[in-house]
Amino acid sequence: MLKLEHRVRIFQGPGAVQAHPEVFAGYGRRCLIVTGSGSAKKCGALDDCITALKCAHIAYEVFDRIEPNPKTATCHAAGAAARDFGAEFIVGIGGGSPMDAAKAVAIYAKNPSFAHDGVYTRQIPAQKLPVILIGTTAGTGSEVTGVSVLTHSDTGAKKSISGADCYAEAAFCDYSYTAALPQATTVSTALDALAHAVESALSNRAIEKSRAFSAQALGLLAPYILSDPPFPVPDARMRQALYEASVYAGAAIDLTGTCFPHTLGYVLTEQLGVPHGLACVVFMPALIGRARRFCPDALAFVEDALGVPMETVLAAIRPALPPSLPLGGDAIADAVARWQKGVANFTRSPGGLTPEEARQALENVSG
Ligand SMILES: [Fe+2]
To answer: Which pTM does this prediction carry?
Structure first.
């Protein structure tokens, strides 16, 4: 079972939500549940949460309009709904989108003067409501990170917020909620976890503790990426391994941040709708190439944790990637213009990365 000391209180395993109504009771008597349109209901997590809330005599309201790649305006509206209801805490149920949205909603709820994009210019830490997260996919690691990735409603650009005010107070990590995930979602979210573990380990901000988390994640993911065929139909054991890997990888990036594949991957998601995990690993060959040049020891560490050379992993995941990525020249130019002010993900990537090199990397995968 997962053993992870972390500032977020983690409750894990099947039945964890219903077994711990006192966790919810510890944060107030009224809450807003923030979720997407369907999957939280389908997988049973919403019902389990409501059962726990009723058991703890907590009044609740459900805001179920969080879209994939949540927009700032949607989170802003949910924050107003939380205030109107008198919510004392927020529960986020879902994959990365509802969980990331819940973090922003908690900030908006306490800051009525904020415009829809006020989270980007807030004083950190901002006032916020407590947040409890219930994960239903295995990839994002949002349960344990102080990061929330949002999409600016006016520009359509994905941009993260981070800080001490972006942590949940508690998270439920019950892999049984992932049992009925479609195979495509299982693969793309697992590849997000892989990207987190690899990018963190190759980051020039990696430290002993983050490397240990990356190694745990890579060791859990490797058997399923490298099986023949890669990513078999999951059984409960595989579901548990993928979930635990996502939490370890989340703990790793919480210490280091991600590298340039995440920043470039956002462009593929914004422009072409490529699922986040796939969009990130599209740039993994470029990342590995730079690691070979600039931090071969860190790359050797990753390969040791995986038990195979990185080429073997890249070959295994290649069939899952989109067959074509028709990025327009304007989209590439817009992205490069956005990066001129400096990008933390570029700075911490192996050898650093200039906006010009980022342009090249985008052009190399486009077509
Ligand atoms: Fe990610």
So the answer is: 0.95
